[in-house]
Specification:
Strand order of the largest sheet: 1-2-3-4-5
Structural class: alpha+beta
CATH superfamily: Cytochrome P460
Number of strands: 5
Strand content: 25-35%
CATH topology: Chalcone isomerase
CATH class: Alpha Beta
Radius of gyration: 19 Å
Shape: globular
Number of helices: 4
Distance between the termini: 56 Å
Length: 158
């Protein structure tokens, strides 16, 4: 009996350690299967073109969708993905080209107290190479202007 309890305790510890490690990898798998919130295109001439020019797709997990729909603070566990792709013209249409960045906002009020409860991550192109080194300076300073919307720029479209 004691051996079984010890074995179960060790397995539980191992699995919880694995889950904790996985939480540190903030790249969201299958985010394009999540709820699509909106899309937009920033073209040359826009003040944010140099940093954010291209096609923007915003996706949200179920918890984030609840925050969008209720127009309240987003609950912890909300994840919003900003998928930014270059554009190209083809047959008089603007279409997606290569991916520039995958931006990720993760709501965890305890872990990210200094940035409004949100963790901000960005991954270069189609890689898992993180390009945000200082989430406060790189992301939150701009998102702070959206305090009344829980630091989220996008709005849910019905």
């Amino acid at each position: 009996m004691k051996k079984n309890l010890l074995f179960l305790t060790l397995i539980t510890l191992f699995l919880s350690t694995q889950a904790f490690s996985a939480e540190k990898d903030y790249y969201p798998s299958n985010y394009r299967q999540w709820q699509h919130v909106k899309s937009m295109v920033i073209q040359e001439g826009h003040p944010l073109f140099d940093a954010f020019g291209g096609i923007h797709h915003i996706y949200a997990n179920k918890k984030a969708i609840r925050g969008y729909k209720e127009k309240k603070n987003f609950p912890d566990g909300s994840v919003i993905v900003f998928d930014l792709l270059n554009t190209k013209l083809e047959n008089n249409a603007i279409i997606e080209d290569n991916r520039k960045v995958v931006g990720v906002m993760v709501k965890n009020s305890k872990q990210f107290k200094d940035t409004g409860g949100w963790g901000f991550f960005a991954f270069k192109g189609d890689t898992k190479e993180q390009i945000v080194k200082d989430m406060k300076a790189s992301c939150f300073e701009c998102h702070a202007s959206q305090k009344d919307a829980d630091y989220v720029f996008s709005t849910y479209r019905k």
